[in-house]
Amino acid sequence: MSEPYAGDITPKQAWEILQSSKDAVLIDVRTEAEWAWVGQVNLSSLEKEHLLVEWNRFPGGMRNETFIEDVAKLVPNQTTELLMLCRSGVRSKYAAIALTAAGYKTCYNIEGGFEGDHDDQRHRGTVNGWKVAGLPWMQG
């Protein structure tokens, strides 16, 4: 059985797609707090900006019930290639599934997310993810 979305890609594959496709869009689905305190991707060298749409609301962690509508306002063309990013690749996978179900044709999940999985000491930022891949990012 195939995945209910375009599939998982590495951060480096995401960067390559963003470089080669002028219309591809990265959507960061983390919370406002994560954007401000942990950092964000920096696509300025590609002359692009990423979009910020919470999957879960901060504070409280409640599901953003208008997520699909929020994305649709920002990206009305459902053939646009979407690359979904969160902290570790879990929320972004659910977001990719939801957007695919809503009619978007190509929604990828960036595996490892922005900070990556926990290491042996339960710290992020050492195993995988956007930052570990050495891709551009900036502090809020």
Automatic annotation (TrEMBL):
GO terms for molecular function: catalytic activity. Pfam families: Rhodanese (PF00581). InterPro entries: Rhodanese-like_dom, Rhodanese-like_dom_sf, STR17/STR18/HARC1-like. Residues 20-126 form the Rhodanese domain. Gene3D superfamilies: Rhodanese-like domain. It comes from the Bacteria. This is Sulfurtransferase. It comes from Terasakiella brassicae. The lineage of its organism: Bacteria, Pseudomonadati, Pseudomonadota, Alphaproteobacteria, Rhodospirillales.
